[in-house]
Structure formats: structure tokens, C-alpha cells
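cache lookup: miss for this entity combination. No prior model stored, computing from scratch. Input as submitted by user K.M.:
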Amino acid sequence: MMQGRDWHEKAKCLNADPDMFYPMPNDWKTIVEAKLICASCPVSAECLEQALDGGEQYGIWGGLDPEERRTLLRRKRQRMRME
Ligand code: SF4
């Protein structure tokens, strides 16, 4: 995993329309298109980590939409409680 903000330069979405990653909740076509870009992004782990650490409430980060990130965080917390 890359440290700091160096990973931004490797982002697959670097030249994509930023609005694509902040679609309306029911704009499935744009959501799928954005997630497809994320699926082949070499720094998706770094991107997702930044979103989780920063508590990002909006947008698609690391291929996950806000609801998916909330679910991931909930499961992580549950796992930590069980350890
Ligand atoms: S995972 Fe998606 S939103 Fe994050 S840097 Fe890569 S392409 Fe951009």
C-alpha cells in the first residue's frame, strides 16, 4: 500500500469527470460506470482507507458507495467487539 498522498497520482479516475463519483442515489448507470473504473484502479485500497478514515459521507471511494462503506465499518466494529 502506498503511503501519504502519492497514491492520488496513480488513481484511475484522475482524468475522469469527478461528478461521476458523486452520482445521485438512484443514478444506477453512473454508479455502475464509476464502480467499473474503481474495479481496475491500482490504488483502490488506499482510496477506500482514506474514505473510511475521513468518515466520507458522500461519493464512491475505493469502489464502495456510502451505504456499502457504512456496512463495512459496521462489520469491522462487530468483528473488533468479538475479538
Ligand atoms: S478507487 Fe475509484 S475513486 Fe478511488 S482513486 Fe481509484 S478510481 Fe478513483
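stored under new cache key. The pocket of iron/sulfur cluster is lined by residues 11-13, 21, 37-38, 41, 43-44, 47, 60-63 (CB under 6 Å).
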